[in-house]
Structures are given as C-alpha cells and as structure tokens.
Amino acid sequence: MAGTITIALDAMGGDYGPSVVVPAAALAYKKNPKIHFLFYGDQKQIQHYMDKHPELRVVSDIHHTDKVISNDEKPSVALRSGKGSSMRLAIDAVKSGEAGGVVSAGNTGALMATSKMVLKCLPGIHRPAIASIFPTKRDEIVMLDLGANLTCDAEVLTQFAVLGAVYARAVKGMRTPTVGLLNVGSEDMKGPEGLRLAASILSSVTFPGRYFGFVEGNDITEGGVDVVVTDGFTGNVALKVAEGVGSMSSHFLKEALTSSFLSKIGALLSMKALKRLKSRVDARVYNGGMFLGLNGICVKSHGGMDAFGFSQAILVAANLIENDYNKKVANEIEQVMSQESFITSVSSLSMDGQ
Amino acid sequence: MAGTITIALDAMGGDYGPSVVVPAAALAYKKNPKIHFLFYGDQKQIQHYMDKHPELRVVSDIHHTDKVISNDEKPSVALRSGKGSSMRLAIDAVKSGEAGGVVSAGNTGALMATSKMVLKCLPGIHRPAIASIFPTKRDEIVMLDLGANLTCDAEVLTQFAVLGAVYARAVKGMRTPTVGLLNVGSEDMKGPEGLRLAASILSSVTFPGRYFGFVEGNDITEGGVDVVVTDGFTGNVALKVAEGVGSMSSHFLKEALTSSFLSKIGALLSMKALKRLKSRVDARVYNGGMFLGLNGICVKSHGGMDAFGFSQAILVAANLIENDYNKKVANEIEQVMSQESFITSVSSLSMDGQ
C-alpha cells in the first residue's frame, strides 16, 4: 500500500514478549498510522494480547513459530540454530522485502550476528554500528558505536561519522551536522593513533556533515556536537556509565526529597516540575539502538522495556524507513569513499595495521 | 618532627594559583594538624595570602621561584625546561625526602611526566596510574586508570588491581576489597583479549583483595565492587561522561525547580534536603587524582577547584602518606609478582603482543 511502513516484530524477544510487544505496536500505530506490522512468535499469545487492540488487528499479520532465541544464547549458536526463530523470521522478512525494518528486544549479540549474516552490510560499508539518541543540555545528539565493534580503525570510524551525519540529516533534518570524535583531550596530538588518523581523514574529506574535532566525555552532554563517534568498547562503557550516573542521580534525589516531612511537602509542590524533569531523562524515550550500515533497517529495544519504551524503538525504525535512511547512506558512502583525499589517507595507513 | 606529614605544594598551579592554594592549605591544616607545608612559587603572592592565615605561617616554608609551567605546555617541553619551576621544585622535595608528597593543580601531563622522571616507579611497578574516589549508591569506590596510559596490557591491569586494592585496605580500611575489571559485559568470553587475560591472572593469583569479575559501566555507580580497574583511555572517558551526566542532571533539576512559582516554593521547602543532595555529588569532595605506583606520593587537583576542593586533594595526599601507602604497595607487588601463577600467566602472554 502506498506510504505504508511495514515493520517486522520479534514478538518473543525481551523480558516480557508479546505482553509488551503487542501493546507497544498499538501505541506506535496511534502515533504513526502508516505503520503495518508483521508479528513473529507464538500465535496464541500474540492473539491474546491483540484482542485488546482491535484497531491493530487490521494492520497486522501474525506468523506463528514456537522457536525463540534465548537471552543467554551465544551469537554463534543463534546463527547456526536460529533458523525459524521469531527473531530470525522477522529479519528474513526484511531480507525478502516484505518488511522495511525489524525491531527486536531479544539477545543483542544474536540480533547483530543474524542481521549481519542475513541482511549484509550496505555496499561499501565495512562494519555496522549500534547508534542511539541521547539527551543533552541542548538538543538531542546521536552517538555510535555503542558496542558492535570492540576496536575500530580509522577507516571504520570515518564510515561511522558518515552513518551518524546522514542520520542527523535524514531523520533529524539537520543541514550540516557537526561530528566529534570521542577522545581523552581536544588537542590534535592527543589519543591513540587510529583516532588521530580518523581525525585527519575527516578533516580532509567532504562528507554530509562538518568535522568538529575531538570531544571529551563531558562534552557529550553539553550538546556541542550533533554526532559523537567512538569505538564500540568505549561507546558501550560511556553509554552504561551515563545510565548508571543518571540512575544514581534520581536515587539520591528521591532519597533527599523523602528525607523529611518538609522536603516531602516541597516535593509535592514541585511534583509537576519533577515529572517533567523525569520525562527529560526517561530512558524509555531514548530506547532504540539502531544497527546502522546494514542492508535493511534493524532496531534493538532494551530487553526490560515496557510497552511505551518498546513503542519508541518501533518509531525509531519507522523514522529510518520513512526517511529513506539506507538509500541516503549508500549514496553518501560511495561519494566519500571515491574521494581522492579519502583514498590517499586510507592507503597511507593500510600498512600501520592499526 | 614525629608524626608530621610534610606536603610540598605547587602554589602556582591551577587556574587561581596562591589565592586558592594558600587558603586550601589552611583548610586542610584545620582538619589535619599534623600537616606541614612547603610552598613553591611566587614568595610575595604566597605571603600576601598567608597573612590572612597566621596559624598556617608557623607550619609552612615558602620557597620562591618565578618559573611556572603553563597549562598548555607540552609534557615533553615541561620535562626539558621545567627545572626550577614551582611544580618541579615541589616534586624535587619529595625526591629529596623533604616532603612526603606533592599536590599540584597544574598541567596534568607535565605533572605526570615530571613526577615519573623524578620520582620513578616503585620497584616492580611498570607504569603509574591515575586513581580517584567516586561516590556510588552504596559506599565510595576507587577507580583507575583515569588517563595515565591509553592502553594497558594484562600485566599492567593486574598491577593496577593491586594498586587499587592496597589503597582500599590501607586508606579506606577495608579487609578484602573486591576488584572488578571494566568491560562491555559480565560474561567471561566478553571483551578484548588483554582484559580477558587480566581476568584470568587475577582469578589465579593471591593479592590483597578479591577478584569479583567483569563489571559494566552502569555497575560502577551501583557500588558492587570496591575497586574498578580499566585502561586510561576508557577510564578517562568514563570519568568525564560521569561528570557530564552529573552536571546535566543538576542543570535539569535546577531548571525544573525554577520553572514555576509552585516549584520554587517546593524547592524552598526542600532546600535543606537538596543541599545535602548537592554535597553528596559535589565534585570538590572527590577532588584529588592520585598518581599511584610512583616512588613518592603525588596528587593532582583539578585546575578549576576552589580552596575547599584543593584542600580535599591535600587531605588525599596526607592520607596516603599517613597510611604508608607506598611501602604497602611495594610489599604487595613483590609478593604478587613472585607467585608461580603470576609468572606462568604473564610469560604465556608475552608473545601475544597484546
């Protein structure tokens, strides 16, 4: 149907399966009525929850399977024996073109390994990255890689910069997004060699953004750049440290505001403001790890999300599809990699083994 | 004098020089009257601020120098031409035994490079690390390396575990501190090779703590382990991300509580509780990056700290000196490194080049 966005859902993934995935789909559909759904998983369970959402029934197909990839399955095992599982079938639907994208709250390693194998990378892309949106003091930013690749050489980091910049343009509507490389200092000579090489490539090539320079950990939340690029090890630690400090801050705030009668009255009076504060740093709002660089849209929801959180991940996938993200990336990557300055830089470092 | 703790102060380091360093010394002296001070820097300026603290005059010597290492000086230049500077003279005082330790708010790279060159590493220690105390939901923890070494092999990470565990015992009085290695997952097979090797060494050797396993970024603030060990690149990013998220949280909270008349009244009633909250996450309380593993105590204060913040760094140094930290580390390192299981593990990995 013209203008329809079809999303394949791994209904069995995550801690709560269809009890979250189905109402999440209903929520997402309410916000974006162009979305149609392909559910993969236990027909009876899915049907049970869908009975409460008749409006969803009309725009959904249910494909039954008993098979589920568990959360503790090793990615290599999931690859070999995952055929016919709810996750695999949902990814297959993207491969075959039945769906424009897939959303799963299942095993991250299995989802990445399977979608890499089934969907493959976009032409020219060496490795996919996990990207996500973060709140900052100013606007939201996008950061990648959050864990797909433990180490990344300069060429891969450069590609990530393009993946992030195209996202900021295509989905966030920015004209010239600024891109920063995460480092331990902002001076040019700081940091490991691979990072410095990536900086020199990004300074010399034309890409759909502007290279800002190195940024430090505390710059991320200042919102000084629109895209933060890092390797998957550092990005994963940074993401989780941010989650941890956020959680500690609310923990301390709650303790403080319930510590005395007076502070409780004060909190009551500030309730509306505090609720708005909570929504600003609500992890559910920022749910949806985008696997960028694959030949198909794939979004990972946090396993413990509720229906609202999972619905956000669906909307993230819908946004990528609706804005033709992958087509735009493929174009831009080709243009960046065919530039003389890119080819010279990369060939000069190919012997460094970094 | 028996029981005296002598600390050499780089009076010119940091953004504010003697205007902060002198009152900071007065504050620290108030809390720990065993401390005596050797000030290095502009005699006139130091004297000017000391006139307001006659009690300090009695326990202080001022050593004049005009020379200051600037904040943007490259470490290599500071090494070559830093002789006679306030920072260098303060470090020299530790080397000569006149002082038990040095505190500086100056250029971090220059301080690390100079103290490494002048003081050298403790016997058996390959590389010094920067360590700091962090607040968590439970008790405070110590984390290292925060930026001295961009990459660290398994042997160095193992030594850092010992440096951290001895700190937790000697200064924090813990009997068997738990040590975690920062990684992107808690499963044994996760992460880069060097980390997995460090995990296997720490699992097999006897050291002054208990190896807990891998911890993730969000585990740090949960306080599940007493010591978190990581390489200097990751540690530096983690530290700064934590600072950034903390700053964003207070920024959002302030915005929320001043957003309406009602919320302002609420904040007023909760004032006492909010002040206590602020003190719990006050960066000044946790000021003092310890350069562990050197043959002398060296503590780095944040350059922008006020007198209270700098005084905390002085107290950190005093604690290390008073508790004989370096002597204890030297003993423990020797014991760990002479163990059969340590020698076997390290020699088996020496060919991996990791």
Notable traits:
alpha/beta, 2 domains, Isopropylmalate Dehydrogenase, 15 helices, 354 residues, 49% helix, homodimer
Characterise the protein shown here.
Two copies of one chain form a homodimer. Chain A has 15 helices and eleven strands. The first copy, chain A, is an alpha/beta fold. Chain A folds into two domains: about 5-120, Isopropylmalate Dehydrogenase (3-Layer(aba) Sandwich), CATH 3.40.718.10; about 130-285 and about 330-350, Isopropylmalate Dehydrogenase. Chain A has an eleven-stranded mixed β-sheet, with helices on both faces. In chain A, strand 7, helix 8 and strand 8 form a beta-alpha-beta unit. Chain A is globular. Chains A and B meet through helix 9, helix 10, helix 11 and helix 12 of A and helix 9, helix 10, helix 11 and helix 12 of B.
Which class of secondary structure composition applies to the elements of chain A? Answer: alpha/beta
Principal-axes shape call of chain A: globular
Distance between the termini of chain A: 48 Å
Computed over alpha carbons, the radius of gyration of chain A is: 21 Å
Q: What is the subunit organization of this protein? A: homodimer
Largest interface (CB within 8 Å) is between: A-B, 61 and 61 residues
How many β-strand runs of chain A? 11
Strand order of the largest sheet of chain A: 3-2-1-4-11-10-5-6-9-7-8
Please write the CATH class name of the largest domain in chain A: Alpha Beta
The helix count of chain A comes to 15
What is the domain tally of chain A?
A: 2
Average pLDDT figure of chain A? 92
Main beta sheet strand tally, sense and closure of chain A:
11 strands, mixed
Please name the fourth-level CATH homologous superfamily of the largest domain in chain A. Answer: Isopropylmalate Dehydrogenase
CATH topology of the largest domain in chain A: Isopropylmalate Dehydrogenase
